Amino acid sequence: MKKRRLLIAALSGIMALMPITAYAAEGWVQDERGWKYQLEDGSWRTDGWVGDDDGTCYYLDSEGYMLTNGYTPDGTWIGADGVWVKESMRAEYEARNAAFASVTAPDLSSKDVSQYPLLGKIPYSLSIDGSPVLFTNNLEYAQSNIFKSNREIRMRDANVLLYLAGLYNNELTEYEQAVVEKVMEFLNSFDWQNATDYEKAEQAVRFIAERSHYDIIDDDALLYNSSYSCLVKGVSACDGFAQSFHLLTRAVGVRSFYVSTLNHAWNYIKTNDVYFVIDTSDLVQSYHYYDDNDVTFNSELTKYLTTLADDADQNIWSLNGTSLQFDPNILSEPLF
Asked: Residue 285's closest CA among 238, 229, 232, 233?
């Protein structure tokens, strides 16, 4: 759950918020039971609403803990993540939960790990029709790059991961199949199941750098600035490098994030609740500027993999916008 600086609010009618003065020392605190909101004087907010400045609202019970999955004392419905759900959405919310409860996880017992190396390793949920989808309430899996042509999807990174986990039963596009083969090549290139997150990130950067070079071509994004162009065609700009790093590191279990602006794209990885920044396109260019065994390139790689990213949390949320917001209308935990 993402908690930001919040304003204490009172509820009037359905949800008419009247802000109360915010104190600098106030904030959310989580313990083994759940979330609480501490006031400046050290006491806890109880029996009332706490409202985010963007309108998101949470209800705290008599002991100060945030309520989830039910009604508040004033009759307002609260979702699985504690967020107030509009009454008009409640029926749909309950129907979706009931539909999820009625479907059965796919049988993966007949799948061969040699063909599906991520078997049992990718978090997923089930759509109402029972088909597996990447678990989008996990931040890193919510970032799934999609490329279309004439309104038809030609490439979806999510399908690559679902296929490698034995969860994708539809036919891959030619672009997805080509990327699957490259990710398989990456997985077979080192002992990723026993590697550290640092080693996984290093291997991902080298794998990309050894197979691609930087070039800016103002044309089809799929062919010149994507995980396909980078890993298969061998050419990309910053977006494709960052997307490829994001795809490869997710495949080996690193909590990685892809962030892009109008001018640039880069990555963060998170280990032990600490963010590190990686500018993959910069490293690729360094790789080709220096000999790959040169101490200068190794120094650049080490610098990126040991530089703390103080702005990561802000950028991951603000630059990716609502695509990374927790959705109260789907399961709060993956089935797998």
From this structure: 238
